[in-house]
């Protein structure tokens, strides 16, 4: 599929700004930078863990997610939509 | 102000000032066995005042002021001055409390373990708390559970129980009349009558308790019970907290720890007898 993000590298927000607590199928994330609590479910925690501090491009992220997680037949457009939502919340940065 | 009264409820000291004697006299009577604020210094101040000087006498209307106020709050008639004082005290807690994570919930305790009853207004929290306090439980509060982020313990806040409408008669059937305040009719929430917590609840109000079970009661349904997942409890308790956002990461830590370690159930009940039985059953199964 077309990779709209091109060579942009996506990184999880700096670890010291996040507190992630796994509750059940949901995880609660406290974002210190904004003071906002997020409640997320798959694939958001997997995306954050995969990006890590090093960061990945969109296409590299999709490849790693497919390899590391059984995200079923989740289509790439849906995964990238979740990535964009994480960028919007500040939990993922492109800087 | 012309008249004033100071009281400590659990860890929180209040001073209530009033343009009128009557609400202060009622507070003095109903809170007669309560201690005064630590070192005489209240945490919060409530003011009951007349919007205009002549309104102390002509159709007296009680405005609620204090450290924290709701700008749009309508005044109450003087006959409901006690309610105005209680609303003012709740308001200070809801808007100003920073030491504890506040959960809108009733709490009762047995053997050092706390049962948290939370839910929407009308779910029966106060009624259940009153009935359970007559059945061997220690009343810790009917309005706010004070969760200490440092220890994970619940602190008691046993203010006057606030019974509304049909629950007044339900509790009156089991409780002596001298435990009741005046019947306040025509309030914004219908009829309200306050109940003085029993002597044991007041005597033990400085003893916190370890949370052991969270229940979400719902009145008016066929008897039913289900487990509630930690994430659902988390969402519902953030909504039931008045200061979750204000206290920031300490609140997040306290609440995630609570929902991960304490079981939670939702119980539906058709009547109070069923509710008490379901609470006891859930407590045994926790």
From TrEMBL, chain A:
Taxonomy, superkingdom: Bacteria
InterPro entries (alphabetical): PqqD-rel_X
Entry-linked NCBIfam families: PqqD_rel_X
Record-given protein name: HPr-rel-A system PqqD family peptide chaperone
Organism: Sphingomonas psychrolutea
Lineage, opening ranks: Bacteria, Pseudomonadati, Pseudomonadota, Alphaproteobacteria, Sphingomonadales
């Amino acid at each position: 599929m077309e990779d709209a993000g091109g060579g942009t590298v996506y990184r999880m927000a700096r670890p010291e700004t996040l507190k992630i607590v796994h509750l059940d199928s949901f995880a609660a994330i406290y974002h210190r930078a904004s003071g906002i609590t997020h409640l997320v479910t798959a694939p958001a925690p997997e995306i954050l863990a995969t990006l890590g501090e090093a960061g990945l491009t969109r296409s590299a992220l999709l490849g790693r997610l497919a390899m590391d997680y059984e995200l079923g037949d989740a289509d790439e457009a849906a995964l990238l939509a979740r990535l964009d939502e994480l960028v919007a919340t500040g939990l993922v940065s492109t800087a | 102000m012309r008249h004033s009264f100071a009281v400590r409820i659990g860890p929180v000291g209040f001073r209530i000032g009033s343009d009128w004697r009557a609400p202060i006299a009622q507070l003095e009577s109903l809170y007669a066995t309560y201690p005064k604020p630590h070192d005489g210094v209240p945490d919060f101040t409530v003011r009951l005042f007349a919007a205009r000087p002549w309104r102390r006498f002509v159709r007296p209307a009680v405005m609620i002021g204090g450290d924290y106020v709701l700008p749009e709050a309508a005044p109450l008639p003087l006959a409901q001055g006690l309610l105005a004082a209680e609303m003012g005290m709740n308001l200070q807690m809801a808007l100003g409390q920073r030491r504890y994570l506040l959960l809108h919930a009733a709490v009762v305790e047995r053997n050092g373990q706390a049962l948290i009853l939370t839910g929407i207004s009308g779910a029966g929290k106060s009624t259940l708390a009153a009935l359970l306090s007559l059945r061997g439980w220690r009343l810790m509060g009917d309005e706010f559970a004070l969760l200490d982020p440092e220890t994970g313990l619940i602190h008691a806040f046993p203010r006057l129980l606030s019974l509304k409408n049909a629950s007044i008669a339900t509790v009156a059937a089991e409780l002596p009349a001298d435990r009741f305040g005046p019947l306040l009719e025509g309030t914004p929430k219908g009829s309200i009558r306050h109940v003085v917590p029993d002597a044991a609840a007041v005597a033990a109000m400085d003893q916190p308790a370890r949370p052991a079970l969270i229940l979400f009661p719902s009145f008016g349904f066929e008897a039913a019970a289900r487990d509630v997942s930690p994430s659902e409890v988390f969402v519902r308790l953030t909504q039931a907290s008045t200061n979750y956002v204000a206290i920031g990461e300490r609140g997040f830590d306290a609440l995630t720890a609570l929902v991960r370690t304490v079981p939670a159930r939702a119980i539906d009940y058709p009547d109070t007898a069923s509710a008490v039985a379901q609470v006891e059953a859930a407590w045994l199964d926790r």
